[in-house]
Amino acid sequence: MSLIKKFCLQPVEDLGKFAHLPQLVLRVSVGFMFLSGAVGKLADLDRFAGALREAAIPLPLAGVVAPVLAAVELVGGVALMVGIGTRLASLVLGVTMVGALITTVAPPLLDRYPNPWTWLSNLFYQPEWLLLGLLAWWVCAGGGRLGVDAWVQHRRAAESESASMSDTD
Q1: 130: part of which helix (H) or strand (E)?
Q2: CA gap 80, 28 in Å, rounded
Q3: Who's near 125: CB < 8 A, 6+ residues apart?
Q4: CA of 107: how far to CAs of 52, 103, 114, in Å?
Q5: End-to-end Cα separation, the chain, in angstroms
């Protein structure tokens, strides 16, 4: 049994030491996706507003919503990349993904796949759905130990510990 543990189980358990790395790669990648998408939208706001109008967002509202959404994606993307305000950024970006799913992703799929099973199967393949899942994870779990949030939390804990030690002196 010890040979199995030594050569099979222990190496797998040791991989847990690196669990923060995939989380970092995913957070930076998703942040970059939002950042690059925002840059493209900001570069041609009229085109983006037109796409929003086509997605059934009322005409005057699309011109207001377009720059706001682009700014949210820009700031949220940067926040995810550096791991600052990860939970809040993920929550706000998650709301944008719900909006995208409702307005631009789900309706065309429903037209193409009226059968509920087929529609759901295709909906779950959409990148917006996967992004929503990752964002929900970061809302609940935070950005991991490699980011500004973790650094601030660690620093506050150290200051609190230092203050409590000086109080006992």
Answers
A1: helix 127-141
A2: 6
A3: none
A4: 13, 7, 10
A5: 51
CA distance linking residue 62 with residue 124, whole number of Å: 27
Provide the token pair at 52.
């929003």
| Cα–Cα distance for residue pair 45/63, rounded to 1 Å | 8
Model pTM? 0.83
Q: Two tokens at 10? A: 């222990």
pLDDT tens, 88-115? 999 999 999 999 999 889 989 999 999 9
CA–CA distance, 94 with 136 (Å, rounded to integer): 7
Number of Cβ within 10 Å of residue 47's Cβ equals: 12
Q: Is 142 exposed, middle or buried (0-12, 13-18, 19+ CB in 10 A)?
A: middle
